[in-house]
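Malic enzyme (Collybiopsis confluens), 564 aa
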Amino acid sequence: MSPKFQVALRGDAILTNPRFNKGTAFTEQERRDFGLTGRLPYRVNSLNEQCQRAYDQLNTQATDIQKNSFLQSMKEQNWVLYYTLLLRHLRELVPIIYTPTEAEAIAKYSHLFRRSEGLYLTFANRDSMEDDFLAITKGKDVDLIVSSDAEAILGIGDQGVGGIGISSAKSVIYSLIGGIDPSKSLAVTLDVGTDNKDLLNDPLYVGLPHERIRGQQYDEFVDKFVQLVRKHFPHSLLHFEDYGVTNAERLLERYRDNHAVFNDDIQGTGAVTLACLMAAVGVTKSKLCDQRIIVYGAGSAGLGITKQLRDATVTADNISVEDANSKFWLIDKHGLIKDSLPDVRDDLKPFARKDSEWSDLQSSEVRLLDVVKKIKPTVLIGTSTHAGGFTKEVIEAMAAECERPIIFPLSNPSKLVEVHPNDANDWTKGKALLATGSPFPPAKMPNGKDYVIAECNNALIYPGLGFGTMISKSKRMSDTMIIAGARRLASLSPALQDPDNALLPDFGEAPDVNFEVAVAVAEQAVEEGSAGVDWKKEEVREKAKLKVWVPLYGEFVYDENGEK
């Protein structure tokens, strides 16, 4: 049964409102009631017919960036049609509206610009920030705010005001896969300038033409924004996206105890990798605390994964933080992170290894192969963007000492992957348990069977983490809530039924998978007392079902006091 809405818009106002516009799907009665009879062609179309037409139109676009622009235009016209089309062609179209195509759209943002989207908070206008914020949000019930300062966009770096594109795309994924009502989400760019010389020298650049603001002024600007979110939408989820390595972890730690905040680059990547590792550990019938884990790439993603795995090990296996830290060896461009390395970031110091452990080596610089041969790892994780960094010698050395080596080359895009999964599969003679950060075709096992490569895609978990936090109105997204979501995702692993199957569910199942993650997160919030709703744990699943937004046309009744 279609939901019924009282709507106060008529004529062009409803046709140009993407939330309420149905296009040719307005019924004859609705056309009369809303003054649309002469504004639309005669025939009433079903949503199925509209989808077929839209898909045919999409396929006339010659390039992925043209398809991205076409879909962006559709989103600005009709939400139900846009999201229905995406859901029906999920695997095909998510790479168009998100990575990798969205990166190109963001890089060309000023040249592709047609109309504004979301909220632009600019450092030059910081004195009017609250007025600008309220002008967009006043009268709205906002559950989700996705923000970016665009310093580290999708592997292409500093993109200035184009960061609104990643905030908007992330919001779309929350609605598409997580079930969040798009009318209750807000995309925000924090335009603090850019250090991208190409943008600064571009006369068509539409953002603040100033070098990136840093230091105390930056902190005060971000804090003013966060305090506005806390003041006006205290139960919302604030999502940080693609902040630079010097700010991402710092901002997360600063605000995570005061509001429900989430950084997908750190926590989302960590959570989906944790779920994948939990599934692999299930296959090998071992424990998290039994693993010896090398993380190759010690940036925000690598460190986020490390901390997530460390915290889960402490929780799951009841060991100390210090003992859990000892299970990790982190490697960056200077080699193994050791006590003697100069300028080791403070957040890496808990994982720095003692120099005395490596006194038998001739060189002070300890490389990946040295670490593999010495510690005999069970897990090798790549977040380095060093294409081919996991060489044949490295993989064979690992496989020689490990019955089922767990190998996750996670760098994006696929051309930057540390090892092609086909090679890792061949070099381990089909023993490896594999997951990648980008989609890859199956690899051939020695017995001729296809081995499906799990895609360690954040979108399998972060929309569910967010939705569970939002519907429970949790005061914060705790580590235990994230671990609960990861454990639920791991429980859905096909490899637990067949060890030669994929470690994670297929991306086409992402909406159902994320619902399960959301239920687990909300249950944990209720259980630990951080929820802002008066629910019993056993009620969560049914309550969650009622909160899921589904792209369906409602029945509209004109009422001048209705929704706008």
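Residues 264-284 form the longest helix (21 residues). The domain at 98-259 is CATH 3.40.50.10380 (Rossmann fold). ok done for today
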